[in-house]
Amino acid sequence: MNDKVIIFDTTLRDGEQSPGASMTKDEKVRIARQLERLKVDVIEAGFAASSEGDFAAIAAVAAAVKDSVVCSLARANEKDITRASDALKQANAKRIHAFIATSPLHMAVKLRMSPEDVLEQAKRSIRFARNLASDVEFSAEDGYRSEIDFLARVVEAAISEGATTINIPDTVGYAIPELYGNFIHTLRSKVPNSDKAIWSVHCHNDLGMAVANSLAGVKIGGARQVECTINGLGERAGNTALEEVVMALRTRKDYFDLTCGIDATQIVPASKLVSQITGFVVQPNKAVVGANAFAHASGIHQDGILKARETYEIMRAEDVGWSTNKIVLGKLSGRNAFKQRLQDLGIAVESEEEMNEAFIRFKALADQKVDIFDEDIIAIMSDSAASEKAEHYQFISLSQHSETGVRPKSTITFRMGDQEVNSEAEGNGPVDASLNAIEAKAKSGAEQLLYSVNAITSGTQSQGEVTVRLAKGGRIVNGVGTDPDIIAASAKAYLSALNKLHDPSQAKLNAQMTP
Ligand code: KIV
Ligand code: ZN
Hints:
Blueprint: E1 6-9, H1 25-37, E2 42-47, H2 52-64, E3 69-75, H3 78-87, E4 94-101, H4 104-111, H5 115-130, E5 136-141, H6 148-160, E6 165-170, H7 177-190, E7 198-203, H8 210-219, E8 225-228, H9 242-251, H10 253-256, H11 267-278, H12 299-307, E9 327-329, H13 335-344, H14 352-368, E10 372-373, H15 374-386, E11 393-403, E12 406-416, E13 419-426, H16 430-442, E14 447-455, E15 464-472, E16 475-483, H17 486-502
The structure holds 3-methyl-2-oxobutanoic acid and zinc ion (ZN).
3-methyl-2-oxobutanoic acid is lined by residues 14, 99, 139, 141, 167, 169, 171, 202, 204.
């Protein structure tokens, strides 16, 4: 049997279905580029029929990505499949992913269809998709809770119609590793043409077992594709975490004896980018990508690590892209040193213009902050990618006063279109006062769903990274701002969110609003 596990990343589709994690077209392209650097085999860029915005985002990802297969989800009907195919027109390599539910509950209650009608629709849709693409995946939604003999008939028919990948999701996160692995194994044995397709697993994390279930699907069931997301992002408790699957396959190669094509040194940059764009903070003790994943606090552990790192470490931080958090650059560093550091961090700069703009930001930061860490550079590059085009709202300056017993006041100057505006307001705290001052002029009327602050590196000299999530007219956007001054970072984050609401080309309905 083939020993390569295909890594299918669905951060931009299933991950985006996480409430509040909706991404704009440009953000999807930035993440897709990073997924390509990570060398994922397949990028599921969205669900083309769900909205005009998602269609445009898939088309943009398809045009930008060269090395990975780009995929769109579609319900198993001709209209959705045609939309998926149209959105993928510019892809170097495209996949259409059609799904229909096969569990008794979903068929009776959600679809209101008989099992025979579901079987026919699955066949018809795969036949139709195969006329539009040679790479077609079929998913049996709620597959794990389906009646196995019926599911085997549906899968056999899908393969006969030309499906090249068969995915059996544990849609509701109900599975147990051994049972799920056995289910895939038994199902494959019941499908006479099972060797004509790649088998895939797709697990949700409701009981905290998505990664374990996926690995059992591979080891016991013989699946050779794992569907996963960066940081395990996804609906409810999330999906299978890509970084955990990849590092389990690598670290325990003695057990799995399988390979995958991922460049693991790109894992942490991918994790940080997804966290920054979605505002979903990674818990410190998260495996592989959590801030404490390689931190050793106890004296006994530290002593052991100093003697031989294998005493307490099964993976090396640098192998998954953690920098050693050393001071890399400062005020006196030149353009060449900056350029070299970007290369070392695996950050691609698309044009000389982007480089100039990033270097100006680096110099500005070095004026404010003595030591510049790798994390600061990653943040600078995220900011410069986000601000490539002239934005409607631009931060200029801010001053604020807060004192015990006195209501804080903030004065802010920012650009709104071609006007420079000054505004002053009070608030419960200095951040509230600053955002009130912006809102007094911008008058967006947007609802604030989230405000969070994170230190980019450790210690109080760190830059603050602020996320503001706003909702308006069925859209949800995340704005991110970084600055050593967290009040300024907050104002930048708010303005960044307003820019996304303002830009019609980024219009995208909340992923939960799929018709
Ligand atoms: O969880 C699920 O069943 C899915 C399918 C649409 C693949 O995401
Ligand atoms: Zn799913």
